[in-house]
């Protein structure tokens, strides 16, 4: 049972900027009916880069460097490390800057992102696209998952699903995703969910007025566009 | 519009070449999915459920239209089961109704509204120029992606016939934006102007112009009610009035014209549209519009359902009422308050009046305001005072709520009915004081030379105490002189207005002098009733009035 309030302790030592061996593991797409598609990233350091950055965790169709910025999650705090021209809340970032709830991130002259920590109950944060720059496939947002990802109608959810009756909690534990809902009755691939249960790539979670599934992007890094 | 039971599961491939990733929207018209083609192109796939042939025909007409403000239709395909799919451009970003609900529930800044209107006008004018009427413009069909407004659902969901309308609940979203002439089977380009104006109204105010509980009620309001323009910025009112005209011939003729008038109004170049007198049927020549003779259906327009083309006589456009009229007998705000609502408010007010009279009387008693006049005990004096005040407050609440919101009754009817009620309260008050053996405080020295102490043989004062006639006339005049209906109006500026209290006290002071009614009692009752009535009568805070008005309009229609 992961703690909702604290992220795992991590070494404060930052990975070296250039030598990071990002392999696009721990990347997932969450598809929610009627809401959108969201990238779930579970790594503690997340890189953002331009179209040529094949190994970036968030690869935007924008004129950015191959590796433009890295966001580090460190014991519940978020730190943005700039490798290219970057500013946070209109202040240029020389080396790194802390990301607080509501921070506005500018990458290069045109790309704008917003960072949110919608709830103190989770160490996870959310990046939303403020400018029109997206990955090659449209994406409605990115969740930097520390432990949990809350989906639901409230403003305190990482992903707002305005028409849902109540919230659903996705828990990331080791390599697995678990799903749980305090009040909704859910089914995973037609099987009634009791308490919490793991969901794997391709399994579909349904409720009376919701449906979603998680798609693992591992090993699809080079040809993400082709599904069949 | 959520995912209530989409037919196809994520990762399924009902249509060869496309993989469904998630459902986007579902309605009676069909289902829309987000899908990715084998080559990686993201598309919106619409599975047609009902009226497939008609939908298909409408879509085919629009298949090759190209405009930056229109969502492109890429193809129409049949799957292995023979079902029809429309392949459309996928537009990311929120729909206008989501933007409105999430970011601007109370209405958008005018500049933001203008940018949506500009894109809408460009796309719709293009459609009209190609002879196509969209017919289903609504915030759910409008997107903005990369700064461009995109109009969706072109050539789709045009199935609105009078016979189906009642049963087709899924089109309820449409009905808020539906032009009145649609009920007569007219589907000219003017209906798109009307819908756009209804959308702009909603963007500016956060509310559609006509709300209601049922489809029939909303339709009826489109046909008969004038939109309330008061929540709109003042200079935009004539523009919206023009574009929301009931008669398509009197309406703004194109969205380009609408945008021009909108811009002119914002720049202060407003042509005096509203002062144009009702015009005879036919071409409307108005400043800022290049009117061509009205074409209800240009040649080749997509009209899929019955299209009788009746042209009824022009309905004179009634000027919208000023919100707070300056006439002195009308209501503070003209409203359509149902009888049951007024009865409820009167009853609630009467219940509250018991509490406030009690508190007021108790406060007076504890501070020794009720002197031991003659032989009666102070407590008994207080009780007699309180009961009379309560009766007076009740009579005022009932009497004023009887016609709250209407402006029909003349001033004299209002005043006369209150005067009679006041007389009744006076009689009851006299009887109460007789029964409880309570005397009023003696006349003040300044009063002894009262102007009137008898009317003919009718004595108003005997032994320093007002007679039955004295009570009846004092209360009758107090009720008849003041505009008590403004004290109880749910839309009064403040719940309790001190100025009203002072005026009432002055009136009762003068009456006391004129009628030789003991001054302390006269001003006491004037003050007491004015306080109790204002505190007790239900009051709607200004920020909730718009919603209340719409609700009342809805229940009335």
Helix-strand blueprint:
The complex is a heterodimer of chains A (228) and B (557).
Chain A: E1 27-32, E2 36-41, E3 45-49, E4 58-59, E5 69-74, E6 77-82, E7 86-88, E8 91-92, E9 96-99, E10 103-107, E11 111-116, E12 125-129, E13 141-144, E14 148-152, E15 159-160, E16 168-173, E17 176-180, E18 187-188, E19 191-192, E20 196-199, E21 204-207, E22 210-216
Parallel strand pairs in A: 2-13, 3-4, 14-15
Antiparallel strand pairs in A: 1-2, 1-22, 3-5, 5-6, 6-9, 7-8, 7-10, 10-11, 11-12, 12-13, 14-16, 16-17, 17-20, 18-19, 18-21, 21-22
Chain B: E1 18-27, E2 30-37, E3 42-48, H1 52-62, E4 73-78, E5 84-89, H2 96-103, H3 110-129, E6 142-145, E7 148-151, H4 162-165, H5 172-175, H6 190-205, H7 215-224, H8 237-243, H9 255-266, H10 339-366, H11 378-401, H12 411-435, E8 454-455, E9 458-459, E10 461-462, E11 465-466, H13 468-481, H14 484-488, H15 498-515, H16 519-536, H17 545-556
Antiparallel strand pairs in B: 1-2, 2-3, 3-5, 4-5, 6-7, 8-9, 10-11
Helix pairs in contact in B: 3-6, 3-9, 10-11, 10-16, 11-12, 11-16, 12-13, 13-15, 15-16
Please characterize this protein's 3D structure.
The complex is a heterodimer of chains A (228) and B (557). Chain A is mostly beta strands. Chain A has two domains: 43-144, Sandwich (Tumour Suppressor Smad4), CATH 2.60.200; 147-218, Tumour Suppressor Smad4, CATH 2.60.200. Chain A contains no helices and 22 strands. Residues 1-24 and 220-228 of chain A have low confidence and may be disordered. By secondary structure, chain B is an alpha+beta fold. Chain B folds into three domains: 18-89, Phosphorylase Kinase, domain 1; 96-266, Transferase(Phosphotransferase) domain 1 (Transferase(Phosphotransferase), domain 1, Orthogonal Bundle); 339-554, no CATH class. Chain B is built from 17 helices and eleven strands. In chain B, the strands form four sheets. Chain B has a five-stranded antiparallel beta sheet, covered by helices on one side. In chain B, strands 6-7 form a two-stranded antiparallel sheet. In chain B, strand 4 (73-78) and strand 5 (84-89) form a beta hairpin. Chain B is elongated and about 105 Å long. At the A-B interface, strand 22 of A face strand 1 and helix 2 of B.
